[in-house]
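Blinded run. Sample ID left blank on purpose so nobody reads anything into the name before looking at the predicted structure. Input follows.
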Amino acid sequence: MNIIIIGAGNIGYYLAYSLISAANHDIKIVEKIHARSIIAANKLNIPIIHGDGSNISTLEKADAAHADILVALTGKDEDNFICCQLAKHRFHTKTTIAKVNNPKNVDIIKSLAADIVVSSVNMLSQIIEQQVNAIDYHFITRMTMGDTSIVEFVVSENGKICNRRISEIKWPKDTLVIAISRNQKSIVPNGESVLRSGDDVVISTKDYNRKYLKKLFS
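Blinded prediction complete.
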């Protein structure tokens, strides 16, 4: 695969190194800071183009027209935006990926320049959100169609739904109780099934219902 990496900083360097180690890719690095170009050239046995990746002539030297993927990893969002926009609309590069430092720029870069946008701040917030969610329920899997997930909740002793029939509970739309596990025994639920304290309840639901369900089981 033909891959162009814009930026030979730490991320760009180690991305190139890992791609070289993992598979037989044709990789080029574009770097405008001369010292970084020299370091990358000395350590990586791949072509290094010394120049500005947001410049048309530099992208021509890197043969962006024949690239499968261009990854813009500079420290400036505006440079990454221009790199991807030129690659996509001028050179018709198949896939463009941009690193975004300011989360406020994610939407504009994704809509106008990059096919994939990577924001470290957004990734961290998602990881934290997953860890917070894990305290309240166990995420089992995401179904292959749409935004439906299968999750598992535990009925608390003092919860609103404890000792109530499934049919009596106001469930959110697009939610289905699939199974109940009680004392290591599996129960196939129906409307008359009563939820007891300590029950593990497996539910199929849309992602936007999770907060409501957390409140229901808390």
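Unblinding after everyone has recorded impressions. Residues 2-119 form a domain with the Rossmann fold fold (CATH 3.40.50.720).
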